[in-house]
Design a protein that fits this description.
about 350 residues, ABC transporter involved in vitamin B12 uptake, BtuC, two-stranded antiparallel sheet, about 0% strand, Branched-chain amino acid ABC transporter permease
């Protein structure tokens, strides 16, 4: 019993130390390294949102990069044209994605899984073209994109803006990760997973399939939109070419590599995505070359063949083996409680 009380305390202490170490990164990293670390946090936030939809609810989206673009453009437009504080523009962009995602999903959720995937694919393909439309070009900058002046760091903090954006991205990721975890471990999470695994049984028990799925779709779009808003501030630039279909495919690669149905998989997948970007070229824009499909395809095939449960599943299996070995050496005969992932 004493061990049952000690383990949560140790886990909490480890979490606090990890967050403290992450918060200290801006003081130690170079500008280039800090930009990469910020990207990892932003990708992790987007992958939490997509994993919520695909991994936990079983809905396939091939166009979630569109909500990333909406969040980025909404944030950029509010900062550049409405002169709104950037730290207020990001949640407003996320709220817009929540509403649009919920409304978009209501009609398409009545379709079969493959038709839903095709509908999201079309949405992701069309949206970048909208930003080039002559009717909105004066606000979005059209094909040339929209550049942002470097905003002022709020609250008089003695930080560079790049350092502040990293800390803001870390804060948003931690809050969203905790809220998603709380959501999934409660009644809503049980209903969502039941709709994924046993939809007929769940509906017979009174679970409103369309309402729950639309809500999860909206929340997923909101998280991806928040990530897009943070990306716009980090790069201080948005353009239609940044939000092609390969962005959506990259997110799917990220959750497949990190681990479907495991929130920690978003963190592993974000690190892997950044690694892929570095391998292909010096920046994320390099992935829009002809080598992009080849790299994505090779990574996906390798992981699906060797690690079907992703890195999160690999870590979970390895941790369970260590716990069994530890329990065997201690002579207790019972594995210690707990689970990673």
């Amino acid at each position: 019993m004493a061990d049952l009380r000690i383990r949560p305390a140790l886990a909490a202490a480890a979490t606090v130390l990890l967050l403290a170490a992450l918060a200290a990164v801006p003081m130690l990293a170079t500008d280039f390294q800090l930009f990469r670390f910020t990207n990892v946090l932003i990708y992790a936030l987007a992958l939490v949102g997509l994993n919520l939809l695909v991994g936990y609810n079983g809905q396939i989206s091939l166009g979630h990069g569109a909500f990333y673009a909406i969040g980025a453009y909404a944030t950029a437009l509010l900062v550049a044209h409405a002169d709104l504080a950037h730290w207020l523009a990001v949640p407003l962009g996320g709220l817009l994605c929540l509403v649009l995602g919920f409304l978009f999903s209501l009609p398409v959720l009545r379709l079969q899984t493959m038709h839903l995937a095709m509908a999201t694919f079309a949405f992701g393909a069309v949206l970048p073209t909208v930003a080039k439309w002559k009717g909105v070009e004066q606000w979005t900058g059209g094909t040339q994109g929209l550049a942002l002046d470097e905003p002022t760091v709020p609250f008089g903090l003695a930080l560079r803006f790049d350092q502040w954006i990293y800390l803001l991205a870390l804060f948003v990721l931690v809050v969203c990760f905790w809220m998603t975890w709380q959501l999934l471990r409660g009644r809503v999470g049980r209903a969502v997973i039941a709709l994924r695994d046993h939809p007929i049984a769940a509906q017979s028990m009174g679970v409103h399939a369309v309402l729950y799925k639309a809500t999860i779709f909206g929340l997923s779009a909101m998280l991806v939109g928040l990530a897009g808003g943070l990306a716009a501030l980090s790069m201080r630039f948005v353009a239609p070419g940044m939000f092609g279909l390969f962005l959506s495919f990259g997110f799917l690669i990220g959750i497949a590599v990190g681990g479907l149905g495991a929130l920690s998989g978003a963190l592993y997948g974000a690190v892997c995505l950044q690694f892929i970007f570095l391998v292909v070229g010096a920046s994320a824009s390099s992935l829009r070359t002809s080598n992009t499909p080849l790299v994505y395809g090779v990574v996906l095939i390798i992981f699906l063949c060797l690690f079907p449960n992703g890195i999160a599943g690999l870590v979970r299996t390895g941790w369970a083996a260590l716990r069994r070995r530890w329990a065997g050496r201690s002579g207790s005969g019972h594995p210690l409680p707990g689970r990673i992932g």
